[in-house]
Amino acid sequence: MNSHQEEQCCFRVDQRLSINSELCTVKFIGYIPNWPSELAIGIEWDHILKGKNNGVLKDLQIFKSNYYIVTSDSEIKTGCSFIKYKKLVSSSSAYNVKVGIDFYSALIDKYTEKTQLDTSNIKFGNKTVLNYGFDKLIEINSNFKKLPTISLNNELVSNVDNIKTLSNQDLQSLLLPNLNILDLSNNLFSSLDQIIDILSLTPNLPTLDLSGNRFVLFPSNGNLKHKITTVINLTLSNNLLFFGNLLFILNNFTGLNLLNLSENYISVNFLSNLIKPDINPFSNIKSLNLSNNNINQLPWFLFKAFPNLSILNLSNNKIILSAPNSGNKDIDINNVDIYNSLVDLNLSSNLISEWFELDIINWFFNNLNHLKINDNPLTINFKQNFLIKNKIMNNKDFEIEKKFIDEIFINIIFRFDSNLKKLNGSDININEKKNADYYFISKFKQLYNDHIKRNTKFNDNYIFSDFGLKRWDFLIDEYNLYPYLSEYKNVQFKNKAINNFNIENNENTLTKDLIQLRIKFHLNDKIYKINNFQIFTNITNILKFKSLILKKFNLINILQYYEIKIFYWIGNKFYEIESNESLKSINDYNFKNGDIIEVFTNFIY
């Protein structure tokens, strides 16, 4: 495009437009092979699925799509269109084209009754503002000053016209000092300079949403004289961000605590450019949202760039977990960086498929409280195997879904230390954590027995990787597994290598804590009996014991309606197990084969 072509056109390159309510950016003005004698406008749509090309026609690149510039993905074939200029500007055209309006015009349109306005012409700076008198504008703005929240989502805002021409006195009259939340999402901004101008009117603003804009122009000043310290919560979702714009934000919005960069096609390479020797760590940021991007591995370098990061959302990416420097065969896992600041990690809807990937999370994030990991191949495959194992054809049944959730919940949390308090949004209480440990130990012993007797393979979800050593050591000490793992402390076992467990081939150790009890269950004046109730005494607590009994009688659903009391006999004396003993091990009661346990129920609901 030459200057003559732009002069005969009412649009300009990089101008933001709304065409039939779809936001877009002008990327080209000129002539194309398809229409050699008619002026064409090249459009890049905000929605990538709109449009039939990517700026290329007949193998000729007319303009380079920002989708390609940001992603380097040559497979992106949509997002752009060419439209004849005459069709865009014709009054009889099917295209409804709108250009941007200034901030105060949008504010008045949305928050002021039209009956309150006069029609006298007067200038705002050097420009007429919607025919409102400046005195009237100040009067209107006196009401705006009280607003704590302003939402101008999808209002075609593109600028604050001529604000730099105002005197300090006039500028002071237009300030919005009480504004706490400003939503400018899905508008027609093309440069962060325009945002800086608006922020000069909001001196105390903490929360700003700029989602759905396209900052195709780089800021005119790389480093602001006065840094923006008031904004602490910034949302830049679906902005197709260039690295230069992001770096400008990080360097000049120095008060940020929460930063949302979701839906921006961000890759690991893009993020790695943030780590430069001459760039100081972004130590204020505590919450970072990188969901719905193109990240294929955990960006470990982020934790150095953001040393105080406590909340990280990486959901809906393509992440396969591997440890930092995992390509280094000589890595010493006991001498790696541990990231203690992170307490909340969202890895849902990624490509995590192996159980040892959970060990990596537990190893490197010592203080992790909340983990989301649902909708990964690991959980999806587990569900499929669960349905097959239980011969379930219809997985829409609520009870089946609940049972699956309970089982995957247990299989995940036993791999984590006690600091994990929430999984996939559900709280983990002490009893659930203990029961998960008991579940693992019982499964491990069962698998061990099968391995010894029939040389069967251990399931991957009951084997810890190198990064599970810390957790595995705890389980050995806590539940006295040494008889099963002789000289374990001297063994450095590798991922999924069962032979390196150095298991002692002694079947007697398997059964020494397994006993058979006789159960008498009293319910509604009836007595139900089991004469051969088997239980591992050293890995089962009273709470788990109650649950196992109820499951044995298919009465697990009554637990919420009844108070359950357990009594046992020693000689001729009858003793009650108190309710405050629910976490005590069965082993503490010295039960022997054939002892009678009586369970009484009391309806409470």
Q: How would the blueprint of this fold be written?
A:
Layout (H helix, E strand, L loop, with lengths): L2 H5 L8 E4 L2 E11 L2 E11 L10 E2 L2 E2 L4 H6 L8 E5 H5 L7 E2 L2 E2 H9 L11 E2 L2 E2 L5 H11 L4 E3 L5 E3 L8 H6 L7 E3 L8 H8 L7 E3 L23 E3 L7 H10 L5 E3 L7 H5 L14 E3 L12 H4 L5 E3 L30 E3 L9 H9 L5 E3 L4 H13 L8 H16 L8 E2 L2 E2 L2 H25 L14 H11 L28 H4 L2 E10 L2 E11 L5 H11 L9 E9 L2 E5 L18 E8 L2
Parallel strand pairs: 8-12, 11-13, 13-14, 14-15, 15-16, 16-17, 17-18, 18-19, 19-20, 20-21, 23-27
Antiparallel strand pairs: 1-2, 1-7, 2-3, 3-6, 4-5, 9-10, 21-22, 23-24, 25-26, 25-27
Protein name: CAP-Gly domain-containing protein
Pfam families: CAP_GLY, LRR_8
Keywords: Leucine-rich repeat, Repeat
